[in-house]
Specification:
Length: 383
């Protein structure tokens, strides 16, 4: 693995107290996973948007020149400091995303440095001309743990129409082939919406043939009226959960959801039904590590260092260039509030499974303007 030496500077006013570092280390489990009781100490995943820039977007009318868009963002030194913080917090996964991360000239040094700090790192890549076979092998050599691609349909027509980039489906499949050559595990991300929900089973079949290790299914959090029209109804979410569950019983890869927190509730119900028993207090124990939600086990850092509970929840809790990530995650009023399921309203507040699910706080905010409102996409009626 190449050795990286890049000058680093601490974030202004940043730094962890010795007592907090000690408590973080003591909270580690032998499996490397985090007990949900310790969500206030560190997340299970930090996702960092390394850049917003993407050459696919550069052809759109009104897009600013690349040099102007590159004026903002964390420096290499600040990026290294973020890696240091993730390492000190013992976060199980650092996920790098964009934009197109390969447009950052220091991406490979960042990945190498993360590996040197024993930080498990994944990368969400776009199949642009920058992503070559050689780059994939370099990422593997640097210590990248997994690479993710977007596939929004089983056919070129469905996928390419999402990006409005002809040939992106073909390029994605080609890049997946290179990853297999490099023995770099592949994750697929898919946004499920009205436009492609009918294609769910063919996508599952395609991913089985592609030999992926993980399928991350995203559910729409609308940022516009157009996106609101693509959001599945509560009943359609439930039917999609049913299809995902049936698929999970036969595929060789893991299936997880993003902004589909109520899938965990569905899984608990299926488990109880198949064992012909009622849900118990043990099933609903808030210490289960399945209760990952916005601000609870997850944190999103944007390109400028702003820290959010979710990529889809546009409320910042602070900035890593002026505060430590640990203090923002553990102590900011926004994160502390979102981790307290007793504050939830409507049927989410009455639900016995609120500690396991809690609903999408991002979707509740997008639809109602209230962080703590019930998730409108959930069909479950609590007793």
């Amino acid at each position: 693995m190449p050795t990286v030496s890049v000058p680093r500077i601490p974030a202004k006013n940043a730094g962890h107290a010795t007592a907090k570092r000690t408590s973080l280390r003591a909270s580690e489990t032998s499996s490397g996973l985090l007990d949900a009781r310790e969500f206030h100490l560190r997340p299970l995943q930090v996702t960092w948007e390394v850049t917003k820039e993407c050459d696919w977007k550069a052809t759109h009318a009104g897009t600013s020149p690349r040099w102007l868009r590159l004026r903002h963002g964390l420096s290499t030194a600040e990026a290294f400091h973020l890696v240091d913080e993730v390492a000190e917090m013992h976060v199980p996964l650092l996920a790098l995303t964009g934009g197109d991360p390969l447009l950052r000239p220091d991406l490979l040094p960042i990945v190498c440095y993360a590996a040197q700090r024993s930080v498990r790192t994944s990368l969400t890549a776009l199949p642009t001309t920058l992503l070559t076979r050689e780059v994939i092998f370099e990422l593997k050599q640097c210590g990248l743990m997994r690479i993710a691609f977007w596939l929004h349909g089983s056919t070129p027509q469905l996928h390419d129409s999402y990006w409005h980039v002809p040939g992106s489906h073909r390029r994605t499949l080609e890049a997946i082939g290179w990853c297999h050559e490099a023995e770099l595990p592949v994750q697929i991300n898919t946004t499920i919406a009205r436009r492609n929900v009918h294609d769910l089973d063919p996508i599952v079949d395609a991913l089985t043939r592609l030999d992926v290790v993980l399928w991350n299914v995203f559910f729409v959090v609308p940022a516009s009226s157009e996106q609101a029209g693509q959001m599945l109804s509560a009943g359609e979410h439930e039917e999609t959960f049913n299809r995902l569950y049936r698929a999970s019983r036969r595929v060789p890869f893991q299936i997880k959801t993003t902004e589909g927190q109520h899938y965990q509730r569905y899984l608990l119900q299926q488990s109880a039904s198949e064992s012909r028993r009622n849900l118990t207090e043990a099933d609903l124990n808030p210490c289960t590590p399945k209760g990952v939600n916005d601000a609870k086990g997850f944190v999103f850092v944007n390109r400028d260092g702003e820290v959010y509970p979710s990529r889809f929840l546009p409320l910042s809790a602070g900035n890593i260039t002026t505060e430590s990530l640990a203090s923002i995650y553990g102590e900011s009023p926004l994160f502390v509030t979102l981790r307290d399921s007793s504050k939830l309203k409507g049927k989410c507040g009455r639900c016995s499974m609120r500690s396991v699910c809690g609903g999408s706080r991002a979707r509740a905010y997008a639809i109602t303007g209230d962080l703590l409102a019930e998730d409108p996409s959930c069909a479950y009626l609590p007793q």
